[in-house]
Design goal:
By secondary structure, this protein is an alpha/beta fold. 38% of the residues lie in helices and 25% in strands. The chain has a six-stranded parallel β-sheet, sandwiched between helices. Strands 3-6 form a two-stranded parallel sheet. The longest helix has 14 residues.
Length: 208
């Protein structure tokens, strides 16, 4: 069973887009996929329950088989870091519950994709950030970054943080939107490659 932990240089950089694309590509190749965002903030109440938009996108990209906690363990209303959102709602996030649910879903899959919330240093509990969760899970890490101005600094700092936490960094994916300058994105990839010798790409082809 193969797995990745997908983190980002920031919120809104394209983690869900990349993770869902990886799930769809793997399914097209005949793999059974578990695509899992355990914690999501900024959720809305639909039909009497809180729904995480990213969690729903990932579960559907994986084929729609995931139900209940397998679609996402925690849904929080405030669009903030998980710790901040949980404290504002009087909730406590149990990492053991997250890990138990992950193992339950992973047992049914050929490929597991776990998407973090926000960036690497976003706090989940007073004692654990997203990087700590990734370390607990133990999967290779994929960093998703913007393709635009500023991404070199943000990406290299995130690479340093992942390596400092002794996690294996599998790749950096620059998520380029249609309106982004393709030449600038290519230049950013070149500069990041100059500083880090691993896989830096706009394509997920080599990852699945």
């Amino acid at each position: 069973m193969k797995g990745y932990f997908i983190t980002g240089t920031d919120t809104g950089v394209g983690k869900t887009f990349v993770t869902a694309a990886m799930a769809r590509r793997a399914r097209a190749r005949g793999q059974h996929v578990f695509a899992f965002k355990p914690i999501e903030t900024g959720c809305e109440r639909v039909g009497g329950r809180l729904v995480g938009a990213d969690q729903e996108i990932l579960a559907e990209a994986a084929g729609g088989w995931q139900q209940g906690p397998l679609r996402g363990v925690y849904q929080l209303v405030q669009p903030a870091a998980p710790l901040v959102a949980a404290e504002s709602e009087g909730a406590e996030l149990d990492i053991h519950r997250v890990l138990h649910t992950l193992h339950e879903g992973a047992a049914k899959a050929d490929l597991v994709l776990v998407e973090g919330a926000g960036g690497w240093r976003v706090p989940i509990t007073p004692n654990l950030d997203m990087g700590g969760l990734a370390a607990e899970i133990g999967y290779p890490v994929i960093i998703v970054a913007r393709a635009t101005l500023g991404t070199i600094n943000h990406t290299l700092l995130t690479i340093e943080a992942v390596q400092r936490d002794n996690c294996w960094l599998a790749a950096v994916v620059l998520s380029r939107r249609p309106e982004d300058d393709a030449l600038a994105a290519a230049s950013n990839i070149e500069q990041i490659r100059r500083c880090w010798p691993g896989t830096v790409t706009e394509s997920i082809d080599s990852l699945i």
